[in-house]
Fold each of these.
Amino acid sequence: MFSKKIVLAFMLLVGLYSASYAENTFSKMASGKPTLIQEGQKKKWCSVCGMNLKMFYKTSHTVKLKDGKKRQYCSMRCLAVDSHEHNISLDAVQVVDVNSEKLINANKAFYVLNSKIKGTMSKVSKLAFASEDEANAFAKEYGGEVTDFKTAFAKANTSLEKDIAMVQMKKEKKMYPMGKKIFEKKCQESIDPMAYKEINQLKSAIASDDKLCKPLKEKQLQAVALYLWDIKRVDKSKEDIGNIEIGKDEKCPVCGMFTHMFPKWAAQIFYKNGNIEQHQSFDGVKDLMKFYFNATAWGSYEYFKKENITKILVNDYYNQKAIDGQKAFYVVGSDVSGPMGNELIPFEKEADAKTFLHDHHGKSIVTFDKITKDEVSKLDK
Amino acid sequence: MSRKINLYLVEYAINALFRNRSKNIFIMVVFTLLTALLSSIFFITGSIKHELQSTVDALPQIVVQKIKAGRHYDIDTSVADEILNITGVSEALPRVWGYYYFENAGVNFSVMGIEQYAQQYKKSFDTVVNKFDFDELDSNKQMVVGEGVKKVMEKNYYNKYFNFIKPDGTFKQISIAGTFKGDTKLESNDMILMSTQNVREIFDIAQDKATDIVVKVPNPEEVTTIASKIKLLYPDSRVITSNDLQVSYQNIFDYKSGVFLALFIVALFTFFMIIYDKASGLSSEEKREIGILKAIGWRVDDVLKEKFYESFIISFLAFLVGTLLAFAFVYLFQAPLLREIFVGYSQLKTSFELPFVFDIQTLFLVFFLSVPIYIAATIIPSWRAATLEVDEVIR
């Protein structure tokens, strides 16, 4: 019964991470017992990302560190990540041969890149074969090009940034919230992720000790481990910037409209007037900027000084959460307009701003300190 | 001039009503039936509109299905991960669900798979997930059913469990762990919730497949852009946004309410016929009565006041009784006969209850359509008679 559950959990994992869209016959999972070279219970999981090695066995790589410790990764992507942190000699890298499922010297292996098979934690899959013939045969069936370890590794390094961003997005949108829920419901509050050196150590501790967490399925275990490792351990004590809250009677000092009617576009400036913190709410970044550049033009706001600003809040266009306006990226000249016409559209991440610029025919991306008075007044023309 | 109601006039008006007992009872009955019919129609449309709106509100913003040869197929769960990577998407959840036809009762159940720790795309599911642990339900082979579903099952002697017939013909017995109340009546009347694993087994859905994928977009203005990106990414998919669905639901509803409108016009027309009949003239007896009253010293405005009281009492009473009858008819007895017009609106065979929606506007509408018109129809001919010379009337 128990083993059946594990198999089910494994199958779920396959479904989630590696099911290839075009091909269903090929599986990256080990068909028999995988060769795991790390020591102890933690050997089941990748040292970098914590993913199950049996599941992604056919893309697995292993290394020996200088101090003699052995590490095994789910994929070349994790090897690349680790090579930036530890001084890893690439000569000793071993890889799983897809056909024989045995560890072979990676430098002598033939890699098939960019086949129809989906990559592990990367857009491009990198599968290794012992002989060139086998690699060619595979490439004939599933597409892709045959190359050697050095080229493959260089590719993994160049695409690393994008791959990390892709995985990070998924973690943030899916794994962390799920991990948090499971942690709060099934685990001991006292688990200290700082006590573990690697994520796979943490995973094996949780998996082997029912006191830490009630029994979890593999996918749930991964979610909890990621949440603990990435969120709790790093302790992103990044203070919560708060929400934009607007009273029913607040009017935009620039255009005079009730701001609460347009919560999506609301923006606020907080500033100190003497010892009291006051704020003004605007129905768009454009009006906020007009006020910021010349407050007295909109009424007797002599007490407003740029030096006294404590914070500026704007809403990220995509996720509609309040962000720090002074650190945000703004897209100018897009086809999206706010309640007062053309707008500066705020984003927390530059990548999001770029996507938006492309989707909505924006003209440029500016940061807060680069916004000029002329540019703002041009928006009204 | 005092503004007080002249009680003698009211007394006279009541007596006048009793004098013409049979005629007034007839008017009262017709009037009551008319207001009852009118307000029932408004109540039913109001209720259904409310139910429809809450159904539409609960819909996910984008649903992605895989289409093969023009038919709906199971979609790969990995598609959800790809969609999650699109900027502006906050959640992409593969759903595992389906309709299970229960032959004995002739109804369709919606069997939904629930992942305990994933984000839920419906608020009502969040409460269910807090109440029940679907991981435990999974290992105990249990499910949570809507209140209406429970009743249907009990009628068929499934009190503690239900036997699902799998595609290969074997049974899958799942016991009932409890009931839940959905956001809408429609939801609780046909929904069964259980772990995704069990749903996969009942409908024979592979591990890496899902029925469809629901996508959540925090900024509603981005829905169209994201929908077109998904379509570009997966040309074999059908991308349905909640706006599309709202339009198609609205179409069904508008068609049905067209039937109601016809009924409404007939009722209103009948009412105006009666009014016209009354307004076209007073009987000679009534004219004589007004004449005599004037002869013994009533002023014109006294006569009009008396007539006003008389018509107000009868029409307002009829209005009150009529709306009360409508309330009872629609909400207590669930509008037998009339609601048959709406059967099939949900495209499912499940029954639904009309939720109680109190809309003061409809009451006012019915009031102003009936009471003032009747009063006017009584007062205007009386005023004509009252302004005539007394001897002309009595002679």
Amino acid sequence: MNIPESLSRRSFLQATSTLTGAAYLRMLAPGLAAITQTACSARDEGMAFAILGADEARDFAAIAARIIPTTDTPGASEAGVIHFIDKAFAAEMSGQLNFARAGLAEFNDALRGEHASAVHLGDLSEDEQDAFLQTRESSGLFNLMWAMTIFGFFAMEKYGGNKDQVGWELIGFEGGHGPWQYPFGYYDAEVHGKADNGE
Amino acid sequence: MANETTFDTREEVDFAIIGSGSAGGILAKELATAGFSVVVLEQGPYRKASDFTHDELSVVFRSELHGGGNDVHGQTFRHYENETALQPTDQAPVRYARGVGGSSVHFTANFWRLRPVDFKERSLLGPISGTNFADWPISYEELEPYYTKVDWEIGVSGAPGPFDAPRSKPFPMPPMPIKSSGVLLEKGAAALGLHAQAEPHAILSQPHNGRAGCVSCGYCMWYGCEAGAKSSTLAAMIPLAEASGNCEIRPDSTVIRIDTNNKGKADQVVYLDINGVEQAQKVKAVVLSANGAETARLLLMSASTQHPDGLANSSGFVGRNLMYNAHALSIGVYEHPLNDYKGVQVSRIVHDFYETDEKRGFYGGGGIDARPLFSATPIIHALLGRDPDTPHWGKGFKDTMAHDFTRTLSFVASTTSLALDSNNITLDPESKDAWGRPAIRATYMDHADDLATAGFLEDRMAELHEAAGAEKSWRFGIHPTTGGEHLLGTCRMGDDPATSVVDSKHRSHDVPNLFICDGSSMVTSGRGQPTMTIMALAFRAADHIRAAATAGEI
């Protein structure tokens, strides 16, 4: 493999080091792929969560929904990221669940300390939620949720999120639908228009 | 075709080949079709093309084709020999695929020949103090017929470039078509007076030797090719080896030791089978092609009373001179969609800076390519490929990804590494892998010239983005290497047994029936795409080994 993974690893750590996120991404990696097709059927049929209680599921989902918000296009909520998170915590990431629960308790204590009327993140306006989350950016819980939201939004549907491939559609990735014919993009279109075989 | 050929471990086979990758797969085919009995011991599983997936989470983040992450392999890393090596918990410091076909299965298949200068740079440029910079014992001209053999038998697509080494036969098939990233590299290069050329690939641009051509699914880098169009040894060589009726591929076989008899010859290869049960294959000769890290580890693990410092290591050069190739990276975003995740990674390269230019003030050279890199798949893009100056969560994060993913390309520079005593593979004194073997310990700090070369090319790549019209671009900076896939130099070839491990025909200086051929044989690092050379060396080694065996000289 000739991609500079030495460099990518470093970049990976740099990209996350300010968030102290690298450790959480490492914890995440072994746990993600054991989740099977059952995640999809669970999500589609509105079944109960595999491991998460209703309140904590709602809180995790609310955090995910601010990391990749719903705008004029689908976000983490529509992608079913919470089902990815649930399945991950139920399976190979079960070792991280206590950490996440402790983090959530601390998160909610801080939330309730700051907003006397709020019990859950979702009780706040979106602007208030974002402002509060900014104060939690360096927390372990936020970074774990950040990574899990990205994985849940973009990993294959069989892992429970990325419902109807909305994550891929958002960024214009049709990766599940190849093979492809040239031209692929704007800049090669003219070249391939002029040649029979692309060369 | 089902492989019916099997050998009893007590039956003395002509050759046990350790490793089935770029070199081992070729040696298996060459020796088995020549009529020798061959057992290939491969530590990974026997995956078929239909086993390969597009599952980014599993392949990239679970290291599926590596046989798992570093919790399995226990590898350790340090920059300097006076430090205690630590075990990274995410990526292993030396990375390779475990499975039949080895890393030729999941590599990106960029496929550069070395040039004549690579073999004799030491003579041309003079010594470099504190390094083991040396000429090869062979020339480009000696290796050229084997490069051509790789072109035609393995299957290489390409077209001649302005600086290419001479070739005795044209490419067997045209290059892969140009992509938008290639068009933009051409544009930037033309504006700067540089010369973009088509990238050669170990990927079939059209059907060849009974194999199908590339379907442009886009999953080359890190993934196995489900179309069989990538010219891995799994696709191109192993079927021929098996069809000879003389070759058994024995997967899930983890070698732990090569034993020698009282005459100093290798007589059996000891390995753990899939159940972890120790087995010993009797052999007339051994070909070690396990890669530049595993080959060194196995020789060091095979220490005995006769060979106290490890097998074939009277020189002390086993494991030394590890060369990873240094790299640099610059990412740019352009006005219109490229959709560069489709198709092979690279379609155009710039080789204007290949040779050392003493005016730069340091040794080294390299090549630049254009590719999607971190923007070939979504998770990696979100983590690594996006503009670091944009928000990492919220609406700004989402909007930036939605806009940039299809518009992003990377320029990647691959460069020389100098051979140093202090860069090496050794056995970690504490850490073990999941099979109980001493874990691989990598010690590595790039020579200052290697980092200077990478920095020089990083500057050129920034200029290329600007000249190509990027809306924005950013650099990753030059950092000391902490791991890699190019595992070169650790059992270097040479005429002097005091400063090399194998002779110019890949026979170990110390053990007459032990041959070593893989990235470890390389004396210099080339400019960063070593697999073509590893494969050419394997075809050449096979010729010499076959001749020696036929003459009764093993």
Amino acid sequence: MNEMIFEAKDLSRSFTVGRSAFRDLANRFMGDRPPTVLRAVDNVSLTLREGETLGVVGESGCGKSTLARMIAGILPASSGERHFRGEPYDSLLARKRDALKIQMVFQDPLSSLNPRLRVGEIVGEAAVLHGLVPRSRVKEYVIEILARVGLPADSIGRYPHQFSGGQRQRVGIARSLAVKPDMLICDEAVAALDVSVQAQIINLLMDIRRDSGLAMIFISHDLSVIRHLCDRVAVMYLGRVVELAETEQLFASPAHPYTRMLLEGMPKISLERRKFMPIQGEIPSPLSPPSGCHFHPRCPIATEHCRRTRPELREIASGQVHACMNVEAL
Amino acid sequence: MTEPFFQVDDLNTWFFTRQGVIKSVRDISFDLRRGEVLGIVGESGSGKSVTGMSIMGQIDEPGRIVSGSISLDGQELTALTFEEMRRFRGRKIAMVFQNPLMTLNPLMRVRDQMYEAISEHGDVSRKEMHDRCIEVLMAVGIPSPQERLNAYPHEMSGGMRQRVVIATALLLGPDMIIADEPTTALDVTIQAQIIYHIRRQIDERGLGMIWITHDLSTLSELADRIMVMYAGAMMEIGTTEDIIGFPRHPYTRKLLSSVPSRNTPGEKLRQIPGNMPSLLSLGKGCPFASRCERATEICSEPVPATRLSATHHIWCYHPFEG
């Protein structure tokens, strides 16, 4: 098995909500009222091996984007450890050039690409700045990267708004590749694209992975995309990982009731009319998650125990862990 | 099967921009029956949303309906004045958009917006308005509707907001609802709930519905018939079984086969080469020809409709065999 490239242990991130200068001042004079704390990511542990693709799937508010930002090193963790090739993030991120080994591709390239820079500058800037390419060679270098993502050489002089959505996502990917990363984090990178364009970008990511052996973390709400691209999948619900397994195993025998519910709700192209009554209940607010197992109010098999006790992840088959305390009893 | 109550014939909606004429919708014809969901599927720029806006009479400058007819129960909608159309909307046809925050007024309680929708179209007592609101809120599966009436839009989740919008659309008992990507922004479990309730309301109330989306999987589960659009033109129309089970148009086939769930995991997806042509520089032939493996010289000629069965029509010179 390949070497470990990334490891997260008990990673958490909280945000204080509704904090303002006024509130701080009021607290100073009127005694502290505890601020509302949102635990976006709650004790998540993950590993990623060289060349592997790990999927993270979940619905709104499950903390998958916060997790992505922490793994990318652009958001500090509240607690827990992050290691890249055995080195803690604190020391890694201090060396800017090595920090480039971790790159991120965002959902909306229009808001992550500088609208006032030409594609040549967007793609070449960081590589020149960090001395990966001499300034005299940057043009050829950028054209080479653009060719890899399927963009013509004359894109170099154009601005982001002059491209279609799919082409812009190619620019975003080119920018990440230009600094020769070893790990790529894609946060809903194909979510905003049309079906046929989505297929083109997914194929591009698969080509890049094959050619360069990149390790990838692929964050998505779309199970069919995750199933297609990933070796292993982590399922998140309200900040916690509720199940983690190899992709095939997860889709063949999902263990956690939430995973089962997600798989059932997954839209399929078929001629069978949906007959069943869909799962009841809303996703609770992450501001006040339910006690015990976060999923218990929507869970068909929840017991009193689930309301009180926080479940731990347990291994049920090789490589398959889940956080349901009840499912085997049935 | 009942007779269609709603018909669109040879609709053309064009936008006259400084760069040239953008022919967003070209020669679109279809009909709709009571209790039926017609799905319009297409990618960005296919003209699916402009079709919906044309029916609602909401095409603004520099665009206009150049030719064609839209009729509901024999009444011609394209001939209505602005004021007549305003009264028509809501009462006869309601529309639901992707983003409920665009539809809901952030400063008004749900009750006040729903009451406003009723009182705009007639004099109704508060008691009756209240009862009607509760009835439609329950119909879309909103728990404790009484409390929701007091809430502001920001106090509700995205799924709840969209239910309120759909409930408001049902409020005046319209004949048909046009929904443009109504569940696209919602999580899958919430999406499944909303689709379940909508299907029930369509059946119970005998509504006609046009469901505009890029998502074939939602349509395969919800729609009775599906119309496939590409670059402003109709490619194929038929029952859901015709389109999903036995697609004949090369574009429909390509679209269906590029979806991840129709490919082997880990292998490259079957993709459609190239991009959609610019709507500014369309020829008179099939707009898909430049990306189509089956295209020949004749495809640059205007494409007539071919009738494959009573329900299944296609616009293609080289369709796949059935």
